[in-house]
Every structure is written in C-alpha cells, then in structure tokens.
Amino acid sequence: MIPRILVFAGSTRTGAFSGRTADAATKELAEQGAEVTRISLADYPLPIMDQDLEKEKGIPESALKLGGLIAAHDGVLIASPEYNASIPPLLKNTVDWVSRISKIDGRPVRPWAGKVVGLCSSSDGNFAGIRGLYHLRAVLMNCRAEIVTPQCSVARAQDAFDEEGNFKDERTRGMMEGVCRAVIEHARLLSNRVEA
C-alpha cells in the first residue's frame, strides 16, 4: 500500500520558513515512497470562524473542499510557524472550520477524526517553533486526530536551507526523516486496520 499524504504550511507568506519546511517534507515523504499532495492554504480562503455565520450560510465551500482532501488522504503533514508562542491564526482558523464538518455531499465525514498527522515547525529563533506545536498538537488531538510522536522543528530557519531547499544540518535532516517515516508507517497501519 502506497500511503497518500497531504502536506501544507500554516503560513501563506511569500518565502515563509514553514513553506520551505513543507517543501522539504514533501521531498522526504516522496523519497520514502509516499504519494504526496502539496497544497497552499492560500487556495482555500476562509472567513474567521463564526457560528452565527455558519448557521446563516453553512460551512464555507473552501473548508468543505479542504476537508474532502484531508479525508481522501491517509495522512497529513503540517509545517507551522509560531506566533506569540502559539498557533498562527490562519492555521487555527483552518483547523476549526474543518472540525465543523460532519457531512460532505450527504456522506458522514469527520476529516480529522482518526487521521494520522505529523507536525513540523520553523522559526528564526532557537526555540524552532516548538511552543506552537505544543498547542497545535493539543488542538488536533481534541479533533481526534492521531498525532505521531516524532516531530521536526527547524531552528534559525533563515540559515537552515541550502540552495536546493535541503537542510544543511544533519540533525534537522534526521528529525525530518523520522517524522515522515512515522507518518507513513502509521498511515499504513491504520489502512491495514480499516481493511481488516
């Protein structure tokens, strides 16, 4: 079984370190044998999560499209920046809207429930975005996602990549290999469990 993994960054800023980290994850997942879909959250614009808006207009089309993509993949890898030691608002808003989905095209769907998720972070400081991942992990676990234990946090991200977008540091490369391996292995295990 070739696992299908969806990859996106928690920032849409041009040149964002999280985007470069997501690109590195995409490359590593493919090298380890996964079928990878790399998307940008810029293609799924969403209003601020508002239950009055949801009641009036329903779940936005972009959230339903993204939720359908998440549901169609065996795993998800998210590369997130850190804002004020927590989750960036774009990513939190996206997770929240997708968590509201209970049906797509009349079929019962909970995109995050039971989904294998790997987490990466990046920042220009020494903390490497780790504090934000602590909060992101808690939020996704509340959505019943299955978060793999290994993670990759890229410190001093402005100097972390070479001209080809690869990590210069062997330790960071090892962390990325580890989180990608864990996502692939858990996705395979989960798929085998479902088929059984």
From TrEMBL:
Occurrences of domain NADPH-dependent FMN reductase-like (ranges): 3-157
Molecular function per GO: FMN binding; oxidoreductase activity
Matching InterPro entries: Flavoprotein-like_sf (IPR029039), FMN_Rdtase-like_dom (IPR005025), NAD(P)H-dep_reductase (IPR050712)
GO CC list: cytosol
Cross-referenced Gene3D superfamilies: 3.40.50.360
Protein known as: NADPH-dependent FMN reductase
Protein source organism: Nitratireductor indicus C115
